[in-house]
Design brief:
This protein is mainly beta. It is 10% helix and 45% strand. The protein contains 1 helix and 5 strands.
């Protein structure tokens, strides 16, 4: 689904897994960037267990596999 000027919301959805929880059905939005970025609202950080230690990162799980994304130091 293209919104405008290269911005999009993909049909594909991911799961985010943190130290204390999981959020399913997370949308992938663009435009494309050089490095993977994950933006979370504060309640989502708490749900995933990242509010106290964001450096632990999250695991992105999709049909092609999984990848860990950590906050830059």
């Amino acid at each position: 689904m293209v919104i405008s000027s290269g911005r999009f919301v993909a049909k594909q959805r991911l799961a985010l897994v943190g130290p204390k929880g999981r959020i399913d059905g997370v949308a992938i939005v663009g435009p494309l960037v050089e490095a993977t970025e994950v933006s979370l609202a504060e309640p989502d950080e708490e749900r995933l267990g990242l509010s106290q230690d964001p450096g632990r990162g999250v695991i992105l799980i999709g049909p092609a596999g999984e990848a860990k994304v950590v906050a830059p130091e």
